[in-house]
Amino acid sequence: MDTVMHLNLRVDPTQYISQIREVPGYDYIHLVRQPKYMVDLSLLNNKVYYLSEIFSPKKFVKKNNISLLHAHHGQLGMLLLPFKDKTKLPLATSIRGRDATLANQPVGYLEGMKRLFRKGEVFFPVCQYLADRINMWGCPHEKIRVLYGGVDLSQYHYRPPTQSDSQNIISVGRLIEKKGHHVLIQAFHKIKEKFPNATLTIIGRGDMEQQLKSLASQLRLGDSFQLLHHLPKEKVREHMVNADLFCAASIVAPNGDVEGIPNTVKEAMATGVPVISTTHAGIPELVTHEQEGILVKENDADELALALEFMLLNRDKWEVYTAAARQKVEQMFDLEKQLQKQAEFYDELLGGWR
Questions:
Q1: Most buried by CB count within 10 Å: which residue of 69, 124, 282, 299?
Q2: pLDDT at 354
Q3: Which fold has domain 168-332?
Q4: Per DSSP, what are the bridge partners of residue 94?
Q5: Coil, helix or strand for 124?
Q6: What is the CA radius of gyration of the chain?
Q7: For residues 265 and 288, what is the distance between their CA atoms, to the nearest angstrom?
Q8: Do you know which PANTHER family this protein is assigned to (predicted)?
Q9: What is the mean pLDDT of residues 241-261?
């Protein structure tokens, strides 16, 4: 069995653990840059190493029988280029969002990425939108393989929407600009008079927490709004199951940061919660407007408010949307299928190296 050496940003449950440890037919070595990035100690095992402590890449590769390098972010791909040069191993790099932009990137970032495109063997953008972006930056088309992030469908069971009187709207994601939570709060305020019993719950943590709380206070949302800190995955699923609508108001951040496709939208679709989102980045690859949900122009609180109102007034459409949404996730975003595709991409790459 071939062993892949993976480098990702942190060892925690949000950081693509399945794409590192559960690829069928492949063993793994799990690297992070330094011990401080070992965030969740429950994931620590004898296959976790620190790049800063590897002094002889050749010896490390030989000892662990490594056949392939996989960096799970563009910046990490650049970081592994010296390792690749010393070991002569093929390098795969995942592209996940901000790494396909110049948002808060260091001087020389674009030149570094172009060098990575020349020297790396294959690139796995998480959606076609990002594939097109890196192709525009100079990544050869023949090196690009779109690899969607998958949902573990054994953890997300479809339940048709109920015809209850509740109007609970939920959004889940880091409290950062590109998630568009501030736009959602503004849109929710616009429908509040017409739907006085509606509630909005945002789950996440991040730099915008105080800004979002202040906005909700200014708009006098009161008890109809709550912001919950980052919760364990099972608690998030519990909130999602009890929601009536899921909204991801993703936008291009002022610094240019973008999404790929938010996993939370896939999870809501798998669960049977009707979704409203935006035409941002790769989201239209997941949601077709008025088929698996509703899409609106990004960064437009008025249009988003109209979408919220439309969904709350047309509950009879929810089951059609959610059934189609579950089917879409099963067909294109099932974790098991995506891990198998990842293994096939590895096979394709290593076939030319053996």
A1: 69
A2: 55
A3: Rossmann fold (3.40.50)
A4: 124
A5: strand
A6: 21
A7: 13
A8: SLL1723 PROTEIN, SULFOQUINOVOSYL TRANSFERASE SQD2
A9: 96
Are 134 and 125 in contact by the 8 Å Cβ rule? The answer is: yes
Contact 84, 69 (CB under 8 A): yes
Nearest of 169, 228, 164 to residue 199 by alpha carbon: 169
Q: What is the CATH number assigned to the segment(s) 2-150+334-351? A: 3.40.50.2000
- Say what the pLDDT of residue 108 is: 96
**pTM across the whole model:** 0.95
Buried b / exposed e over 87-102, threshold 16 CB at 10 Å, is bebbbbbbbbbbbbbe
The amino acid at residue 311 is: M
For 55-96, give the secondary structure using H, E and C. CCHHHHHHHHCEEEEEECCHHHHHHHHHHHHHHCCCEEEEEC
On average, the pLDDT of the chain sits at: 96
> Taking the domains of the chain in order of start, what are their residue ranges?
2-150+334-351, 168-332
Closest CA to 204 of 235, 183, 159: 235
- The position carrying tokens 């002889």 is 56
Confidence of residue 292 (pLDDT cuts 50, 70, 90): very high
DSSP-derived 3-state class of residue 276: strand
Other Cβ atoms closer than 10 A to 55: 7
Q: Do the domains spanning 2-150+334-351 and 168-332 agree at the CATH topology level?
A: yes
pLDDT score at 222 = 97
Bridge partners (DSSP) listed for residue 259: none
Q: Residue 333 corresponds to which tokens in the numbers above?
A: 């975003």
